[in-house]
Known about the structure:
Helix content: 10-25%
Low-confidence stretches: none
Mean pLDDT: 96
Radius of gyration: 19 Å
Structural class: alpha+beta
Strand content: 25-35%
Amino acid sequence: MKFLTFYEDDTLKVGISTKSGVLHLQKAADLNGLKVPADITEVIGCDRDALQKLAEFVVLTVEKQEEFSSCFIAENKLRFGPCLPKPGKIICVGLNYRKHAEETNAAIPQSPILFSKYANTIAAHGQSIILPKESDMVDYEAEMALVIGMKTQDVAEKDALASVFGYCNANDLSARDLQTRTSQWMLGKTCDGFAPIGPFLVTANEIENPNNLQIKSFVNGSVRQKSNTRDMIFSCESLISYISRHMTLEAGDIILTGTPEGVVFGMPLDQRVYLKDGDVVTVEVEKLGMLSNKMVSLVH
């Protein structure tokens, strides 16, 4: 299933993308006299049986779409919310694509390089991102994110993907001047809106192999990054296993798995053109849709 959130009278609702449009889950459930999760956090907390019943309900509703036409909304009519508005931990992986490490003249990591973002960085598909006035070197980073679905501690690699609820697009926006001001990256990674995610949270059963997906970014329609997750130095399962040996992962935690080559920071100095007012950045990971955000400057 492809879950999403959207605003209805300034309240976030859960939707499911279908061939007939976006199913308003609560409205459809009310018409059927059923109880469904009220928010996406509850969805992630469902066990497999509950998710299977939910999937069957969606299929049945689509089959009877004429009867339940009021429950379907055209995607272009929605104001999206973040596909996970209130994540737990936001764990990011630096220099996890071989060619990206090479383009920045960095050593190939021997262990995953981890850093954090916070809840203030979460943004939705279609949301404008305000460029921080303290930076003029904001960069894009197309990433695939994993959303953890269960408590996970010291898990073996062979079992690690079982802990994943689903996958989504992410953009690890980075203010390079702030990031490189000190040896700690945090300041350049945690500005408001610097982790757009979505538009969909795609359940793990829809993705056969997360380590073999095309990943791209575009700026104003021009391709900037084009790679495949198989170029990751540390696979999805190795990241989950490694992180879970050091901290307990919980349902609703997000892992941003790194970005491929093609970022501005990897270009020769005389070719670097950072994001500016009006630029639209789009991230596309195979099977996960397209995440787009416009950059807006409040300083003119």
